[in-house]
What we know:
six-stranded mixed β-sheet; alpha/beta; single chain; globular; Metallo-beta-lactamase, Chain A; 18% helix; 5 helices
Amino acid sequence: xxxxILKQLTWFGHDAFRLVAGGKTIYFDPFKLSGAPPAAxxxxxxxxxxxxxxxADVAKIAGPQTVILTESQAAKKLSGEVRVLKPGERxxxxxxxxxxxxxxxxxxKFHPQTNRxxxxxxxxxxxRIYHAGDTDLIPEMRQIKADIALLPVSGTxxxxxxxxxxxxxxxxxxxxxxxxxxxxxxxxxxxxxxFAQILAGKVRVELxxxx
Length: 211
């Protein structure tokens, strides 16, 4: 089942992904979407920073039936059916279940824990996909159960590749996928490669091609 989900997962660079599964088209932190991407049933937005909450990109994929799940600051920038969530909540939309989890910095100031910004664990077709949002290596990751983990590797605003590898070893997903690079904001392909190198023989890493 994990292999089937991976085939339906598209990476747009940075933290932006699309997953088509369970009869739903789901986007995470849509940013710099090109062309005419298919409409969203569900959009998960981790926090209000411009490279994660992009109203212009949301407008490209949002329709009358689209549900947006996000935190309170990002919600103020968006319109439509926007549901404000805090870490520790759960939403079910048809065959898709979304759990919100904490995402914050521990040794830098860009993403304070007090903001209650979000990571997401989406369960669809029996597979749990963790989108970490912008976060450092945090104790709450010990409680996360995920088959696929999307983890930031860039450093500066989030975990470094080394810390992201520690997170992967903590979570023990079947597949770990590096993110938070490839959009000209921060992070490089070298960060992703370093992440994969550290985890070689320990956790399977997939480097998704940028769409």
